[in-house]
Request: fold
Amino acid sequence: MIYLKYLRVHWDRAGAVAAALAGIVMLILGYVGAADTEFISEQIPYVISAGFGGVVALSVAAALWLSADMRDEWRELVRQGEKLDALTAQGEWRPDGRRG
Reply:
């Protein structure tokens, strides 16, 4: 139950991990498939399917992870803005930086 809640909140990080794992598996399978052939013409389909697919999956993983980090930074900025608004409303902070 806790894991489902974590996945619901951090769906982008979970997706990034899944895409990274898929990319790594694709690259390994492509390497194993290409290593078993001795002719370059037989290796090209492995490079095209598994190699490019693995790179795309790893790129998607990086984009999802960076998106999650940016969302965390945005939430922190919103929280700091709310604190600053509360201090301004109470008169404890002024825009010129002086107190009182």
The longest helix spans residues 40-90. The chain has a mean pLDDT of 88. Residues 2-65 form one domain.
